[in-house]
Write a structure and sequence with these properties.
One of its GO terms (cellular component) is cytoplasm. It is built from nine helices and six strands; from the N terminus they run ααβαβααββαβαβαα. With 221 residues, it is of the alpha/beta class. It has a single domain, classed as Uracil-DNA Glycosylase, subunit E.
Length: 221
């Protein structure tokens, strides 16, 4: 399977593409897409990198794996296509933004508008079989996406990593918190949010404060 990824990422990831684990991963993904319904569409697997070039990355949000129902996943974590009902986690993300920044709840759940502002929406696993959450985990994607986190951490300063939930929080071991920022909270899923681990984290205003301090910029959430 051809890796269709924005050229700005190639200096940092080219070595990975030639490693045995990645070749095996691409063979597995290719076979899965030929024999099962999988998401996101094949041409959107690397969408997160194509809409957010390496040099533009300012904020990194880490998800686990793509939505596994029809027409939802578009290669950006937590994002759904225009016109698609917002999944519960995304509803809670938007509710927190609404409360934190006092802006209206958005109509579209497509987070391309964030990616275009330098927010890398990175799932740890980039593909999934239809209706089977986690079905493509532990096949090599995590090695690849951990490398992405390491390369960003190594080559950038004042990045802001938003780690939501236990799985994402494990990635803190890959981040130098002396040169980059980490904000953690519970996951926005109803299970976590309804227990009080999500709402009120103010991650969106905190992120903008840090961006304004470092870059005199902010994200229009």
């Amino acid at each position: 399977m051809k890796v269709d990824i924005h050229q700005s990422w190639l200096p940092y990831l080219q070595e990975e593409f030639n490693k045995p684990y990645f070749k095996s991963l691409m063979e597995f993904v290719n076979e899965e897409y030929q024999t099962h319904v999988c998401f996101p569409p094949k041409n959107e697997i690397f969408n997160a990198f194509n809409v957010c070039p390496f040099n533009d990355v300012k904020v990194v949000i880490i998800g686990q794996d793509p939505y596994h129902d029809f027409n939802q996943a578009n290669g950006l974590c937590f994002s759904v296509n225009d016109g698609i009902k917002h999944p519960p986690s995304l509803v809670n993300i938007f509710k927190e933004i609404e409360a934190d920044l006092e802006i209206p709840y958005p109509e579209s759940g497509n987070l391309m508008r964030w990616a275009n502002q330098g927010v890398l929406l990175l799932n740890a696993t980039l593909t999934v079989k239809a209706h089977e959450a986690g079905s493509h985990q532990n096949k090599g994607w995590e090695i690849f996406t951990n490398t992405i986190i390491k390369q960003l951490n190594k080559n950038k300063n004042n990045l802001i990593f938003l780690l939501w939930g236990g799985y994402a929080k494990q990635k803190i071991n890959l981040i130098n918190t002396k040169k980059n920022h980490v904000l953690t909270s519970g996951h926005p899923s109803p299970l976590s949010a309804n227990r009080g681990y999500w709402f009120g984290n103010k991650h969106f205003s905190k992120t903008n404060f840090l961006l304004e301090q470092a870059l005199h910029q902010s994200v229009k959430w």
